[in-house]
């Protein structure tokens, strides 16, 4: 399966379908203008409209566009809380970071592994406890604002590999920018539907007895009826376009999930279970149609025109070309036999909130079976229990992150401790001091994953406390008069992700720049990576040339070592490179990987820099 060709094809088709949405709105405005002109305007005179019709039609156009726009904006603003808001609107409950439930703990572990492996922030995690179907969705404006929500059926019916495949599918929506598009589609559909609602009110109130006294009731009634008819017709076609957009994105998400996990059995197994189970992927939530385009599977039984996903058998065959339908009958027989047999182990009662029933444990492999996720799982398991417990609550997570910046040198450490006490008081100072030794003993490759695990609860801190955290963190890393690579990567990631989480709607969209337009920025970023990954300048130069030739084939380049104070120009270069198109970003990441692999060794410094670069470019970390 050619993932990048699939990605390019689906991105192009989605853009065309979004254009169709704009054309649908234009058609709605034109239809309502025509009705208003017939009801209230003057007839053409000498082959053209009377002058008095132009202000009338202009006013109608502005009013309709404003109605659709403001209604859509209202709906989008109502989802300003991002993924969390969408999940809670469906009755989902948050899965706490410190849950002791074994099934929910497994869910958190899988999501944390995928986040660490992909180099994205750990999202908020939600459970729909009253949904027996196998389904899930990702919502939010950006990766820093994301929430991933799964149904109870996912936890009851899927093994670990299958759950991992579903979660990887949802992460691909995060990384491909589908979440922002999904929220905007929800808003636009609401805006179009409001026309019909307004039309009903106009008929009821404006076309009533009081309006007919002066002879204007028929005109008002006609306009109200037109709003109802055009609103519902517009909603019908908008739903068709929404379904087409969703189907194209789902094909990309399936392909990306395989790219993440490096195997097809997990996500294909989940799709097969949806096919054989009576509940399938259906949802019982009353507003399921509003979020149907976000889900892993169909929310219910809809007409094929409104299907938001390709047919199940088509999705399975795309993943496993040799699949035969006989396998579904064998799977159904196996699952029936397993259901009839007594369960060997029962999970304890859930403690995630009211209404969460006990869930049976499902047999699953305890190892995250694929290489990228196995490494992420190994890093997560290597963290000391005291630190894992610390990053599960906001205040202790704040202390753990500050402890990551505490020096092992006694004189610098005393200065940093005073800075912490001045900024946060004695309680936080004591907590940082208690965690400092455990943090100092961490392997270098475990530092950023620890910060990633802390991120979901750090978002719960007030804006003022987050700002104080970032300011204090900056002061701590500058306490010795310099900022080393580990310190820079930590502060850059946290600042980037926390600021985006506070203002998720400001997260950047896909850029439009090509690589040649950002040649100097590419050269600087590649030089920084090559210099930190190689001990001597000659090796750094060779690695840099490999990267540049990968990005700009058949061109000549002159090596320039990065400046001693490289951090500020490096950040400026990253901000400029974030304006690249997705294919250009892909070429840049491939070039950086070439530089990193030049000496057949991947150092911690190179891995951390690549993680920061990918986060800054809003790209997944290469597995």
TrEMBL record:
Pfam families: Peptidase_M48 (PF01435). The keyword Protease applies. Its cofactor is Zn(2+). It comes from the Bacteria. The keyword Zinc applies. The chain crosses the membrane at residues 17-40, 52-74, 185-207, 219-238. Residues 105-320 form the Peptidase M48 domain. Keywords: Cell membrane, Hydrolase, Membrane, Metal-binding, Metalloprotease, Protease, Transmembrane, Transmembrane helix, Zinc. CDD domains: M48B_Htpx_like. This is M48 family metallopeptidase. It comes from Rhodanobacter caeni. The lineage of its organism: Bacteria, Pseudomonadati, Pseudomonadota, Gammaproteobacteria, Lysobacterales.
């Amino acid at each position: 399966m050619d993932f990048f060709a699939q990605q390019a094809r689906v991105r192009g088709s989605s853009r065309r379908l979004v254009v169709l949405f704009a054309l649908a709105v234009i058609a709605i405005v034109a239809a309502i203008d025509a009705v208003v002109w017939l009801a209230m305007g003057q007839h053409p005179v000498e082959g053209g409209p009377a002058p008095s019709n132009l202000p009338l039609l202009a006013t109608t156009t502005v009013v309709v566009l404003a109605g659709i726009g403001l209604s859509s904006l209202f709906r989008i603003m109502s989802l300003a809380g991002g993924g969390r808001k969408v999940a809670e609107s469906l009755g989902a409950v948050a899965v706490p970071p410190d849950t002791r439930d074994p099934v929910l703990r497994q869910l958190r572990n899988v999501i944390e592994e995928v986040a660490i492996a992909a180099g994205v922030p750990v999202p908020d995690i939600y459970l729909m406890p009253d949904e027996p179907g196998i389904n899930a969705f990702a919502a939010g404006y950006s990766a820093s604002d994301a929430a991933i929500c799964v149904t109870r059926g996912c936890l009851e019916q899927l093994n670990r590999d299958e759950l991992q495949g579903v979660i990887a599918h949802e992460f691909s929506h995060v990384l491909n920018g589908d979440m922002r598009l999904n929220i905007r589609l929800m808003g636009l559909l609401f805006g179009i539907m409001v026309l019909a609602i307004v039309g009903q009110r106009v008929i009821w109130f404006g076309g009533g007895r009081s309006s007919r006294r002066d002879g204007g009731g028929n005109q008002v009634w006609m306009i109200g009826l037109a709003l109802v008819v055009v609103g519902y017709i517009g909603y019908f076609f908008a739903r068709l376009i929404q379904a087409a957009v969703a189907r194209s994105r789902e094909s990309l998400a399936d392909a990306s999930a395989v790219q993440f996990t490096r195997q097809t059995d997990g996500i294909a197994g989940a799709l097969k279970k949806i096919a054989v189970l009576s509940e399938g992927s259906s949802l019982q939530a009353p507003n399921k149609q509003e979020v149907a385009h976000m889900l892993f599977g169909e929310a219910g039984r809809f007409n094929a025109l409104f299907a938001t996903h390709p047919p199940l058998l088509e999705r399975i065959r795309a993943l496993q070309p040799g699949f035969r339908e006989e396998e579904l009958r064998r799977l159904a027989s196996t699952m029936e036999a397993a259901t009839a047999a007594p369960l060997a182990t029962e999970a304890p009662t859930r403690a995630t909130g009211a209404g969460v029933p006990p869930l049976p444990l499902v047999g699953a492999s305890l190892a995250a079976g694929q290489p990228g996720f196995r490494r992420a799982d190994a890093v997560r398991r290597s963290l000391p229990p005291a630190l894992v417990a610390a990053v599960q609550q906001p205040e202790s997570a704040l202390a753990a992150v500050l402890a990551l910046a505490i020096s092992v040198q006694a004189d610098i450490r005393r200065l940093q401790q005073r800075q912490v006490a001045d900024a946060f008081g004695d309680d936080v100072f004591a907590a940082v001091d208690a965690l400092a030794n455990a943090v100092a003993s961490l392997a270098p490759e475990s530092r950023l994953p620890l910060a990633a695990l802390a991120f979901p609860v750090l978002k719960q801190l007030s804006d003022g406390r987050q700002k104080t955290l970032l300011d204090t963190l900056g002061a701590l890393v500058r306490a010795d008069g310099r900022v080393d690579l580990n310190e820079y990567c930590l502060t850059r990631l946290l600042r980037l992700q926390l600021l985006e989480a506070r203002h998720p709607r400001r997260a950047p969209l896909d850029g439009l720049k090509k690589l040649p337009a950002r040649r100097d920025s590419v050269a600087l970023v590649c030089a920084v990576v090559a210099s930190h990954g190689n001990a001597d300048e000659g090796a750094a130069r060779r690695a840099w040339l490999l990267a540049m030739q990968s990005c700009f084939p058949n061109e000549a380049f002159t090596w320039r070592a990065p400046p001693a104070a490289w951090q500020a120009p490096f950040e400026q270069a990253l901000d400029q490179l974030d304006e690249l198109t997705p294919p250009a970003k892909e070429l840049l990441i491939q070039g950086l990987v070439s530089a990193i692999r030049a000496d057949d060794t991947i150092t911690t410094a190179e891995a951390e820099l690549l993680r920061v670069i990918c986060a800054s470019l809003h790209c997944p970390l290469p597995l």
